[in-house]
Amino acid sequence: MNNYFHSVELDAEKCCGCTNCLKRCPTEAIRIHNGKAHILSERCIDCGECIRICPHHAKRAHSNQLEEIEQYKIKVAIPAPALFGQFNNLDDVDIVLTGLRAVGFDFIYEVSRAAELVSEATRKLIHENKLNKPIISSACPAVVRLIKIRFPELCDNVMPLLAPMEVAAKMARREVREMTGSSDDDIGVFFITPCPAKVTEINSPNSSEKSAVSGAIAISQLYPELTQAMDHLKVVEPIAKSGLIGVGWATSGGEAAAMLGDKYLAADGIENVIRVLEELEDEHIRDVDFIELNACAGGCVGGVLTVENPYVAQARIQNLRKYLPVSLNHLNEKDLDLMMWEKELEFNADSFRLSDDLMEAMDMMDKMEQIYQTLPKLDCGSCGAPTCRAMAEDIVKGKAKETDCIHKLKEKIQSVYDQLKNTI
Predict the structure, then answer these.
(1) Closest by Cα among 354, 362, 99, 134 to 229
(2) Four-residue CA torsion sign, 40, 41, 42, 44
(3) Predicted model pTM
(4) What would the pLDDT profile of 74-92 be if each residue is shown by its tens digit?
(5) Which CATH superfamily is domain 354-424 in?
(6) Pairing between strand 135-136 and 107-108?
């Protein structure tokens, strides 16, 4: 098995074993044992759904602290466009970007700039008919990991372009090197992130050997200090270099609209994403060239590391776009080469592997089916597994026993009672 990095962590002391997270996990990565939740590392996609749903705040996301930027000689912020939706009555993104300078960053490179380049690159590849249709966006790392685990047949449909975060980091490093003559080791590039999936992507990339991003700081962690800095600005610097196409990526449908066509589909929220992927796998979705999928409701503005209601933030982004030009960034061939994936997307075989030995795995699969047929098929979650089939898998792996199912336990108790009654 591989060693996996995960930004989503469990605080066992706060966990009450309530099964809320168990029922909402999109990859069945959570089990309840001895009254506490446990996360299966090989299946977790760090979507943050368990953080969102946990009433006891027993799940949390790891990210970098602002103080960590001091490790680098030159500090670069690459803010997600979702950051702009966190502030009320904002009519100039330069206020936010200047605020980032005030809290300690030397250079700012908007991720929305890279988003405009990714949009243009996608349009170019679609026009040249070089991609498998329907094309699935690769921007949301939680969705990409979901496809690797649950929908491996769709791996070839995922767009082989780096996400705007990664493109922005590469572009920012190039610009800073040219301006200052500094080495990469002296440059710290920090993503201002709305979600934990991006933190995981930085530490364990889907499509490259190593990320160009040095770390990620949660919007919620930076927000108080950034707000204070914005309130005390004396001069607003003209930093912004992106338009409404790039900023629009913050909300669901923004990336798809940037395709400038009408054969696209956009879905947000992990449950809706799964429904779309299931229909894609069954070939029920036709006449669509491009599919944008966001694990968070409302798009990136709905990430669990933001501070504002996603629908309020979405409305603010839409209002902010009125003040912006269409696009300020344009693609060249050198940029396109820099944006392509370094490695192909592959099915994560560890996720559902029963055994490294093929014959043993087949035998375990047969036993799983036999056990499953004896279970009530209610998928109630009372046993600590999300479904009866997952329960059968846990039993075969030796991680559970049949009497963990309350219905099977009831049957056994009734059987013992009947035997005792007949004996008496």
Answers:
(1) 99
(2) positive
(3) 0.93
(4) 999 999 999 999 999 999 9
(5) Electron transport complex subunit B, putative Fe-S cluster (1.10.15.40)
(6) unpaired
